[in-house]
Prior knowledge:
The structure holds 2 protein chains of 2 kinds.
Chain A: H1 2-19, E1 24-32, E2 38-40, E3 42-47, E4 50-56, E5 66-76, E6 78-83, E7 93-95, H2 110-117, E8 120-125, E9 130-132, E10 134-139, H3 146-149, E11 150-160, H4 165-206, H5 209-219, H6 226-240, H7 260-266, E12 272-275, H8 279-289, E13 297-300, H9 313-318, E14 322-325, E15 330-331, E16 338-339, H10 341-348, E17 351-354, H11 361-365, H12 367-376, H13 381-387, H14 390-395, E18 413-416, E19 427-432, E20 435-438
Parallel strand pairs in A: 1-5, 6-8, 7-9, 11-12, 12-13, 13-14, 14-17
Antiparallel strand pairs in A: 1-2, 1-3, 3-4, 5-18, 8-10, 10-11, 15-16, 18-19, 19-20
Chain B: H1 2-28, H2 35-41, H3 44-52, E1 55-64, E2 70-79, E3 82-87, E4 97-100, E5 105-108, E6 110-112, H4 117-121, E7 142-147, E8 150-155, H5 159-163, H6 184-187, H7 193-201, E9 203-208, E10 211-214, E11 224-227, E12 230-232, H8 240-266, H9 281-288, E13 292-297, H10 300-313, E14 317-321, H11 329-334, E15 338-341, H12 363-369, E16 373-376, H13 396-405, H14 410-415, H15 419-425, E17 442-445, E18 456-461, E19 464-468, H16 497-519
Parallel strand pairs in B: 1-4, 1-5, 6-9, 12-13, 13-14, 14-15, 15-16
Antiparallel strand pairs in B: 1-2, 2-3, 5-17, 7-8, 9-10, 10-11, 17-18, 18-19
Helix pairs in contact in B: 8-9
Amino acid sequence: MLTLLTLLPGVLLQAPARAGGDALAIRVKRAETVGQGPVEHALILVADGKIVAIGEDLPVERGIPVLDRPEWVATPGLVNAHTRAGGERGGGRAFEPHLLATPEIDPRNDVWEELLELGVTTLGYYPDGSGIPGQAVALRPHGKRVQDMLVAAPAYLKIHLQASASSKKALRDAFQKVDEYEEKVAKEREKWEKEQEKKKKSSKSSTKKEDEKKEEKKDEPKPEEKKGGALAQEEEKKDEKKDEKTSDVFVPPVPDEKVKPFLDLRRKALTALMSIRKAADYLHLLDVVEDEEDVQWNLQFPLGDDGDLYEVAQRIGEKKLLVVTAPEITLQTNSLRERNIPAELVRAGARLALTPRFDTVQGHKDWLPDVGRLIGQGLAREAALAAVTLEAARALGLEKELGSLEKDKRADIVFWSGDPFEPSSVVRAVMLGGEFVVEEKE
Amino acid sequence: MIGRARTLPFLALFALIAGSRITSQQEGGEGGSPPAAQEAEGAETRKDDEKDAKYFAIVGADVYTGTGAILRGATLLARNGKITEIGYDVVVPDGAEELEARGLRVYPGLIALGATSRVSTGVTAVERAGGGREWEQPEPEVEIRWDGLLPVPVPREDPSHVTGEDPPEPFQAEEEGEEKKSEIEDTFDPFNPFLVLALATGITTVQQSSAAVKLKRYEIDGVLLGDRHLASIPWDLGNPSGIKSTRDKFAKAAEYQRALRAWRERNDKDQKEPSKRGVDTTANRVLTGDALAHFRASRREELLGIARFAQEHGFRPVIEGCEEGWTVADELGRAGAYAILTPRHRMPKEERFVRAGGASIENAALLHRSGVQVAVRPDSTTIDMIGTAGRDLLALPVEAGFAVRGGLPDEAALAAMTIVPARVLGIDHRVGSLAPGKDCDAIVTDGDILHYQTFVQYAVVDGKLVYDKEKEIYFAHIRPRPKPPAPEAAAEEPMGEAELEKAGAGEKEEKEEGEEEDESSGEDEKKPDDGDE
């Protein structure tokens, strides 16, 4: 806080200049920054679609318009990381990891506007179907074309895993295919290197002796390290330009489209969202993916009355996994004992992202009050706020761009009439990328 | 005559057990040697092992080993899930998890034959959406029932929907080299409430389809104990051609075995190995001892046929049902049969026959007396959520108790839920009795396991406490756990009257059973079988 305050005058001076005059300052009763806790009497300076500064009672430079709303509470725009709002349910058992959910999105659907009015600024739209139905995309519910709506594509690979031989086999086989592909690449590389050597020898005989000596020196690191090899390759390029142009850089074979997503998982270019239903599924999931150390994955499960996920809450917490679930109080199996599984997960050390209980517009209306109920039953308030903003953004891989009210983050801000978890609170205005897309209502 | 016929299979069995013992010792790196002896060996690698070793001890209980021996107030020590010692001066290492069980009894974990997948995966095949099995076949629409001498086809009412049980497994003609492995390792649900209920009954291992499954809790590793040890063979007098086909298959397999043996003995390189073509793999596996032949039969004629057929080919049949077994008990004993009984099953006698028939409460006792190894399974092997309680899997000890009512010795009734099913499933080298080298699957009860009032207080699987009555929601509120008797040093303190009475009653019981104790001092595997003359 202090650092922010001290830094601010400089920022304020620079900001208008950078923003080219379209900067806006909003003064509110409280800002729930999520990143740095609540800020009372906060001033949020927005320019260029981003948050430039946020702090308590910041002085505003002359010339910057100030929107004074001392009764409003500002939060980051809500993020629902796991939704099919506006889409249809359905889709059978599938293995289509290469498909994106994009074609399903219809910008003309009324649902986007309705969600936006409820303060939802980012959605993780997943492809439906059991098995491995495809890749989810992140979108903002505003825009006339699909391209305008897309924030990130893909956001994550959706994988259903359950305690069954066929389900586990599908995932195991997928990674095995990656192994096979990598083996193939290694073989081809070897073959290519041998060819290069042959060519070099033939070229050596034709070039001068001095050049040979140089080359020999540079060849030395080649078999040991790829980087060294790359250097040598560049050197070779020059020599071979005369003879052949086609094979001067190693081109790995193109992976099958169904293999590529899993290759991306291993290379950390993609994360997976593992959907499970019960505690046993979690153990079976670990049984399959525990050896895949490079693969980053988050967990998703619905919470029903027969959910027994409290059984593994401690283990999930120990792994510090990010869990996407719904704000539901469940009953312990064969009893009337209430379990607040989201709260248990947070206490155990897991990261928590919460979606609405029902994937409808009404569900989104009840979203924060439902989360409020969990808070009433033991969920930490900060964790609850993060669960509908920052952690949900993390599930989409967007935690660096949005999800909290911080400097340089996208200005997706919701202004509430009061505490957002209070059922009587309503959305007063929504700012999306620095623009008010839902106007002030009286 | 009877004696001679019986000793042979026992010798074979004994050899099998001895062999498996050795392997278990090799695997676990652990024999019956006490920890002290290990330290004396002193290899440094050993010491590293020792650091990670997890000890579990059940202290002060009356240990019913399930092999005939009863050790009063003894201690059972397990290391890394395997029993290392049972006795009186057992040194419990520091850091061992100790279970105080004075005044309680320890039994081997019970083994439930034919349990439905509800126990191991939480749902039955019928309940499972989309039907989890690829090989699912339509059930025959008619069933052959007996009306006097004539078989009468009766439309079958589908029992699976009524009872929630798995549909009966069809007899699979096995293709050569193609073995369908149990999928239980990929479907096991260690958190399902039915599993907890099974543990509360004392069941630590279940047979599920072809597999023997250990009811581990909180984990899924190592649940598959054994697979495909039972080969179901059709033998139904209502289907004579089926019997003929079984006979033919075995005859052909036997011929192949003879040819193979002759070829091996000649050891002639020029001669080809006899072809396996056309040889039924199931029959072959039974003849080589890789599998036990499993029949379902009730009637005297069928039982006799099976007994003679088994003797002809020299294998030990497993006969499920066996209601009229008591009428041909000596024949079945001579064949070295195993019988899987439901002692509460009722079946009328065919009045048009002069011969004895129908179900008898003495069935188990008479079969046992003739040397048949008796296993017990309840009427329904699922866990029912509707209907009448006390006949499903949770009534396994009660079912065995009914056999005791008919004259079966207590010891044999315990064996009928432990070591005999273990032998039937081919897992007796791991579970079924409490002996050094075996898995530490034990239950701790507050009384005789065969008594209807007895509760399982603790269940231990692989040396881990997996059930504690006081901590689970099911029976914690019924009758608090009996307090351990006051230690001898503090015995001067006046005891409450109720406690005195209890202690007295306990002693009486012990005296009654003490007679058996004298007979059976060793931890001898074959003990339950040579019980009565």
